[in-house]
Amino acid sequence: MIRLTTENTQNAIAKCKQLKPRVKFIKERMFAVQSSNNSNVYHVSLDVKDGERFGKCECRASECGLVCYHLIAGATANIYRQTLKLAK
Ligand SMILES: [Zn+2]
Question: Which pLDDT tens digit goes with each residue over 48-72?
Fold first, then answer.
């Protein structure tokens, strides 16, 4: 899994805001993100260890250790879900 930091997520956040990919909830900490330039769907899994965020995506960028916009889309959806849970 890739550790998500403010630095390594910056570009992906910008790209995610621009592309606004569709995100589908699969299960706890797992999301399916629709690619914006083809029909691929990437599964994103997320984790939190010792207060740090980690994530993994199925796409090639993620395999190379880069934070992709799919990962950000999944992480954003995850934070949103947790916020909803807290609001209950
Ligand atoms: Zn990806």
Answer: 999 999 999 999 999 999 999 999 9
